[in-house]
Write a sequence for this structure.
């Protein structure tokens, strides 16, 4: 058989040349090969409410969603999303023209950035950032401009002056994530108001990733950026069922936006998955109508797990940044005599039987994230207790 030959040009599109296998795949494989506890990738190890799982089974048996669902999403789910935004935040959306169902929030991010960016457009993102942001900006031909959240008094904080200075005549949009993965920061009402004023002043689009909206703790509150003056017509808001209802494998996300913006995003989305998750869409529609007690109990359970892991990590010698939201704890490994998060995480399974994620993968400025490591606490209590016990061996 003759050998295949290709031109000298690399096979991978040069826009994606900097992106290899994700750190999540690498560390999850390491967890399996070493039999370690996986506190790296952010997925729960138990399913969500039984009645919602049964709703999916019922949809399957009734033949709802087994064939292609409508491109924008099934009407029941779009109506439920609109009702959720109205009930929670006072945001009114037309289910037919302002709500779009996607294959998880990751597709929502990709479709939005592909729709709204032209080659050369600048996108300001809060660093550290979810890794798909960078890849999607690159695929759209945009240029990412990171504004770094930095440690201050036990949390990671946004410098609003740095954000303002990052805006140029080439800036197309701001990509905001709150509650913020991986740091656990929840932007305050005052910070969000300043971001809104900047967006209006400089006529910027804003994309807000709010998938952890129901996971805010203590005195923190989640306030959608679209609720501020001048933002309703320029904001694309992204949500997801996976993080709120613990069915991450169902891949049901959504976009809410003014009709013009939504039409643009839908134009890109239809050429990605087209449609997905048919029966699960009906189940998520029921999930969004769960009583307030579900959301309160879910938050209380995650807060208890946060406290368990944060306390255990502190006792193990880490400096801990107790998160105000999400289900991740960021730590500083320097008190353990370490400074390289990559090396630390790759050795941790053998040293302690636990897997974590080096935050540096979420930075353009790798040196700024080098000493920080992220642990997920969306696991069973006994797993977290075992993990903290194992991690204490690092200082023994």
């Amino acid at each position: 058989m003759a050998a295949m030959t290709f031109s000298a040009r690399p096979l991978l599109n040069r826009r994606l040349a900097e992106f290899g296998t994700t750190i999540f795949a690498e560390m999850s494989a390491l967890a399996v090969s070493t039999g370690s506890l996986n506190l790296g990738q952010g997925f729960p190890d138990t399913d969500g409410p039984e009645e919602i799982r049964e709703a999916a089974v019922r949809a399957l048996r009734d033949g709802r969603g087994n064939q292609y669902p409508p491109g924008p999403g099934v009407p029941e789910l779009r109506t439920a999303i609109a009702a959720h935004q109205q009930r929670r935040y006072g945001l009114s959306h037309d289910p037919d023209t302002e709500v779009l169902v996607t294959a998880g929030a990751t597709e929502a991010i990709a479709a939005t950035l592909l729709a709204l960016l032209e080659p050369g457009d600048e996108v300001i993102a809060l660093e550290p950032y979810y890794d798909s942001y960078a890849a999607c900006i690159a695929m759209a031909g945009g240029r990412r401009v990171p504004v770094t959240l930095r440690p201050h008094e036990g949390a990671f904080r946004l410098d609003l002056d740095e954000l303002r200075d990052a805006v140029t005549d080439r800036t197309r949009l701001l990509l905001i994530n709150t509650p913020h993965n991986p740091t656990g920061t929840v932007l305050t009402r005052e910070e969000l108001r300043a971001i809104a004023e900047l967006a209006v002043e400089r006529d910027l689009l804003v994309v807000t990733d709010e998938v952890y909206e129901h996971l805010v703790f203590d005195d923190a509150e989640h306030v959608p950026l679209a609720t501020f003056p001048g933002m309703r017509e320029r904001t694309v808001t992204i949500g997801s069922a996976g993080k709120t209802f613990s069915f991450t494998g169902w891949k049901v996300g959504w976009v809410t936006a003014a009709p013009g913006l939504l039409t643009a995003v839908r134009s890109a989305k239809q050429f990605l998955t087209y449609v997905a998750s048919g029966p699960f869409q009906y189940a998520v529609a029921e999930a969004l109508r769960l009583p307030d007690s579900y959301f309160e109990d879910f938050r209380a359970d995650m807060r208890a797990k946060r406290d368990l892991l944060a306390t255990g990590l502190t006792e193990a010698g880490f400096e801990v940044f107790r998160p105000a939201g999400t289900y991740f704890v960021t730590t500083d490994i320097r008190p353990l005599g370490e400074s390289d998060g990559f090396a630390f995480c790759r050795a941790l399974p053998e040293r302690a039987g636990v897997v974590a994620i080096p935050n540096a993968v979420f930075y353009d400025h790798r040196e700024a994230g080098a000493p920080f490591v992220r642990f997920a606490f969306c696991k069973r209590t006994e797993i977290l207790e075992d993990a903290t016990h194992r991690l204490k061996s690092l200082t023994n």
